[in-house]
Design goal:
The chain is an alpha+beta fold. The protein has two domains: 120 residues, Jelly Rolls (Sandwich); 73 residues, Winged helix-like DNA-binding domain superfamily/Winged helix DNA-binding domain (Arc Repressor Mutant, subunit A), CATH 1.10.10. The protein is 41% helix and 27% strand. Strands 1, 2, 3, 4, 5, 6 and 7 form a seven-stranded antiparallel beta sheet that branches. A three-stranded antiparallel beta sheet has the order 8-10-9. Helix 6 packs across helix 9 and helix 7 crosses helix 8. It is globular. Keywords: DNA-binding, Transcription, Transcription regulation. It comes from Enterococcus faecalis. GO terms for molecular function: DNA binding; DNA-binding transcription factor activity.
C-alpha cells in the first residue's frame, strides 16, 4: 500500500471530475495505491476512509462465523467503499480486496461525516449511487434465475479479470455467487477453454476479452 496526500500525488488527474467531491474535498483526501490481492479493508475493523475507486477493480467478501467466505459484489472504477457505513446502514464492515493494481481516493470518514453529509449535492449523488447499487444487486439475482450460466460466467469474467485480463477466483466462491453447482461451473469453464474464450495459466486464466464481449452481446440480442 502506498498512501500519498492528494495535493502531493502525481495521480491527481485520476481523481478530478468525480461526481461526489469538489476541489476542497479533494484537498482533505489521500490517494492510496494497492497491489493485487491486497486488502483495502478488513472485515469488522473500523473504517477510517470513504474510498472512491479511481483505477482498477476490487471485490467485497463476507466471512461467516464458520470461516466460510462469500463474494458479495465486484467493484469497478467509479464505485464507493464505505458508503453504507457513512449512512449508518452497515455496522459491521466486510473484507474488500484489490483485483490487480488498484488506486483509490480516500476521504477521511470524519470529514465525510461532518462536512460531506451536510452538503445537499453530495447526498443527492450518494442517494443516486445507492439506488443504482441496489438495482444492480437485484439484477444479479434475477439474472441468475433467467439467464443460462454461459452468459453469466462470461459477464463475470469481464468484470472480475484484472487490468492484465487475468482471472483468478476460487471456483467454490464463484459457484455460490452465480447460484450453480461446482460441477456445472467446471464444465462451463471447460467449454470456454475449448471455444477460445479463456486460456489456463497455472492457477489462473487469461481471458479473451474481445471474444467474451462479443459472446455477451450476441446472447443479449
Amino acid at each position: 500500500m502506498l498512501k500519498t496526500a492528494y495535493q502531493q500525488s502525481p495521480k491527481q488527474e485520476l481523481a478530478k471530475n468525480t461526481p461526489f467531491f469538489n476541489e476542497t474535498d479533494l484537498k482533505h483526501s489521500f490517494i492510496i495505491d494497492f497491489e493485487n490481492q491486497e486488502f483495502i479493508h478488513h472485515q469488522a475493523e473500523p473504517l477510517n476512509y470513504l474510498f472512491y475507486l479511481i483505477k482498477g477493480k476490487a471485490k467485497i467478501l463476507k466471512t461467516e462465523r464458520n470461516g466460510r467466505q462469500s463474494i458479495v459484489q465486484f467493484l469497478t472504477t467509479g464505485d464507493l467503499i464505505g458508503d453504507l457505513t457513512l449512512v449508518q446502514a452497515e455496522t459491521i464492515t466486510k473484507d474488500v480486496i484489490a483485483l490487480g493494481e488498484t488506486c483509490c481516493l480516500a476521504v477521511p470518514l470524519a470529514y465525510a461525516e461532518t462536512v460531506l453529509k451536510n452538503k445537499v449535492l453530495f447526498m443527492q449523488q450518494l442517494s443516486h449511487y445507492l439506488g443504482k447499487k441496489m438495482l444492480q444487486r437485484v439484477d444479479h439475482f434475477t439474472t441468475n434465475q433467467t439467464y443460462e450460466l454461459s452468459y453469466r460466467l462470461a459477464e463475470l469474467l469481464l468484470v472480475a479479470a484484472n487490468h492484465e485480463d487475468v482471472y483468478k477466483e476460487k471456483h467454490t466462491e464463484i459457484a455460490e455467487y452465480l447460484g450453480v453447482s461446482y460441477r456445472h461451473l467446471i464444465y462451463t469453464f471447460k467449454q470456454f477453454r475449448e471455444r477460445g474464450f479463456i486460456q489456463k495459466q497455472g492457477t489462473a486464466y487469461h481471458i479473451n476479452r474481445l471474444a467474451l464481449h462479443s459472446f455477451v452481446q450476441k446472447m443479449k440480442s
